[in-house]
Amino acid sequence: MTSVLNVDTIADKAGTGPVGLTKQSAAKAWVNFDTAPSTPAIQGSFNISSLTDGATEVAFNLTSAMSDAFYAPVGSGGGPTITNPANRNLAMNCISTTQVDTEMYTVANAQATGYNHGSVLGDLA
Amino acid sequence: MASILKVDALQGVTAAGSILVTGEGNSTTTNLQEGLAKIRVSYNQSSGGAQGIYGSFNITSYADAGTGLALITFTNNFANTGYSPVGSGHMKEASNVTVDMFVYFAQGGGTYTTSAFNVTTYRNGVGAVDNEVGIIGHGDLA
């Protein structure tokens, strides 16, 4: 018989700490944003408060902070077509516990705009 | 003594698809469903080994759509195209492991819908190339 637990919030036995997901880890943030418009626009997100437009670079800001600046942001880019020269690569860097900087560039190592996909894994503060 | 709850399925009460869990620092909560990857796939498109899917989750099919180009189709669709797939790739051949290799998604061109996307692997200075590729994707399911 399948068991289903209906609950809104899960904490540890003490009621104040996290529960362990056995041998698994969930992402703490993800975002999809487009830097082609003059103002970068979020297409979808989780735990993202805003974008900071730095002209050639765009940072995304986290609503809930990470515990330190050694978490793991991963990202990929999306261009307007499926073929060269529209290819987009995406670099990411942890700036602080609440901010990840991104820069999109082409295969010619030139700064470019496009769709930015990012996920953040690590521990929350 | 550690307590372990054994259950086959979890649902929210207020909203079936939303459960909060306490974060590692004990000071905030995070949404469990939002943090879970909704798709995962690793596949080989190169001639350096058997071509096809190595492993996957919520993936219906992988199709070779040309050199370095694949079409990935999901079993359960996303709610919108604001989801966030990320990936990486490397050459199967040992002599060409990873040199300026990256994976990108044709959002804004090609196929990028709630049920499938095109993904291309590219090597700087060479162009689109067949690779081994790994992808995960976060977002909201329909």
What is the topology?
The complex is a heterodimer of chains A (125) and B (142).
Chain A: E1 4-6, E2 9-10, E3 29-34, E4 41-46, E5 48-54, E6 57-62, E7 72-78, E8 89-96, E9 99-105, E10 115-121
Antiparallel strand pairs in A: 3-4, 3-10, 5-6, 6-9, 7-10, 8-9
Chain B: E1 9-11, E2 20-22, E3 29-31, H1 32-35, E4 39-44, E5 52-57, E6 59-66, E7 69-74, E8 84-90, E9 101-105, E10 116-123, E11 127-128, E12 132-138
Antiparallel strand pairs in B: 2-3, 4-5, 4-12, 6-7, 7-10, 8-12, 9-10, 10-11
Topology order of chain B in helix (H) and strand (E) letters? EEEHEEEEEEEEE
Percentage of residues in strands of chain A: over 45%
Q: What is the average per-residue confidence, as pLDDT of chain A, rounded to a whole number?
A: 90
Residue share in helix of chain B? under 10%
Q: What is the rounded distance between the termini of chain B?
A: 39 Å
| Number of helical regions of chain B | 1
The overall average pLDDT of chain B, rounded, is: 89
Give the DSSP E fraction of chain B (strand runs of 2 or more residues): over 45%
Q: Give the class of chain A from helix and strand content and strand pairing.
A: mainly beta
User: What is the CA-based Rg of chain B, rounded?
Assistant: 18 Å
The poorly predicted ranges of chain A are none
Shape of chain B: elongated
By helix and strand content of chain B, what is the structural category? mainly beta
What order do the strands of the largest sheet of chain A run in, or round the barrel if closed? 4-3-10-7
Please characterize this protein's 3D structure.
Helices cover 0% and strands 47% of the residues of chain A. Chain A has no helices and 10 strands. Chain A has strands at 4-6, 9-10, 29-34, 41-46, 48-54, 57-62, 72-78, 89-96, 99-105, 115-121. Chain A starts with a strand and ends with a strand. The model of chain A has no long low-confidence stretch (mean pLDDT 90). Chain B is mainly beta. Chain B is 3% helix and 45% strand. Chain B has one helix spanning 32-35; strands at residues 9-11, 20-22, 29-31, 39-44, 52-57, 59-66, 69-74, 84-90, 101-105, 116-123, 127-128, 132-138. The model of chain B has no long low-confidence stretch (mean pLDDT 89). The chains are: A mainly beta (125), B mainly beta (142). Chains A and B meet through strand 1, strand 2, strand 3, strand 4 and strand 7 of A and strand 1, strand 2, strand 3, helix 1 and strand 8 of B.
